[in-house]
Specification:
alpha/beta; Rossmann fold; 2 domains; nine-stranded mixed sheet
Length: about 270
Amino acid sequence: MTMRSFSISSGKARMTGLEDGEGPAVVFLHAGVADKRMWRDQMAAFADRYRVVAYDRRGFGETRYEPDSFSHIHDLRAVLDGLGIEQACLVGCSQGGRFSVDFALAHPQRVSKLVLVAPAISGAPQPKPDDLPPDIAALPEQVEQAEDQKHFDLVNRIEAHMWLDGPRSVDGRVQGSARDLFLHMNIIPLKSPSPGKDEAAANSFERLEEIVAPTLIIWGDLDFPHVQQRCILLGKRIKGAKTEMMPGTAHLPNLEQPKKFNALLQAFLSDAR
């Protein structure tokens, strides 16, 4: 099979993505510091057994848009409808995990399984700066100062330390193609205009018990402590959820250890229960 590109209209945006393979659909939703390219290893690994799809949200990658009030849930539905996909396993990382949960609650019949990788969750409590340990709290402050001065390359480097290396890891722990890709992906949303107001779900955190799709939650032990704690909580709140902590990885474990991540994903996808 050869990778096929697509462009699908949703409101004032054209969602740009890639698909490959045939069979049950697996749709990958990227983190807020990345784009569809973060899933390159997974797209390549699973295209021989599944129909794999990844797309760029508004403000990321190659998707083109005009500022507007919009809904990520509606955008995802537009992509599925445009590709003729009735039901899919959603694999979402960070903000992609957040929108996967929102969609699963809004359209449960369209989600066969859920894989949440260090997910954000709409309505979940966020740690205040004063709640963070001093060594970690310094990093968001550095980002804010660099953003105020429009030093986007510096913001990008700090965020690579926070999200790719892990906030308590040595700056530059992850090198090679993974770091190069992170820096190429994350600079796009940093320099792009705002896509507008996201009419997002506000209370998914209060509705986790309503999720009916079989769910796998994956996170790394080098991620922010509050993200790890949230993942553990989700494992208890989502009925029947499986949890997997990947040692030696931070917020993007599929980029850091693709073979181990792919093995976890394959085991979950092939589990008929």
